[in-house]
Write a structure and sequence with these properties.
Blueprint (H helix, E strand, L loop, with lengths): L1 H18 L4 H5 L22 H11 L1 H8 L3 E3 L4 E4 L3 E12 L2 E10 L5 E5 L4 E6 L6
Antiparallel strand pairs: 1-3, 2-3, 3-4, 4-5, 5-6
Length: 137
Amino acid sequence: MIRRISALAAALCVLCLAGCGMDTLLTGLGTTAETTGVPGGEDLGIEAMSGDELIGYLLASAEEAYALARENYEARVPGDITELPMEGACRDILLGMVSDGDFNVAIHYTIAPSGIIYKYFPEDGDWGIIYRPGYSG
C-alpha cells in the first residue's frame, strides 16, 4: 500500500512538473532544453550593439560600474564572448585602469542577450547577477 502511494505521488509530481513547463527532469538526465534567455526577458540585440552602446548600457544599468567610471576607471569591450548556461553567448566588458601603459582589469562583466548583467567573482570562480531588466531594489 505504501509503495502504491509513493508511486502515485511520484507520478503526480512528474505530471505537475511537465504541466508547468519545467524541464528539470529532462535536464537532470543529461538532455538539454532550448532556451532563449530568461523567462519573460526580451532579447535586447546586444550582439548588434557597438562597443560604446554596450558600455553605455552597463554604465546606465549597474551603479557600481557607473561609480567606478566616475573615479577614472575605463570600460573596454575586448570582443570576447562568455557562454553562460541558460543565457548563451554574452558579451564581455572589462572595467579597469591604465597604469604604466597597461590596462589592469578590476572587474569583468558580461551582458546576456536578455539584458541581464553579470559580474565575475574571482574568489568564487563564478558569475553573479548584478542587474536584471525590469527589477529594482
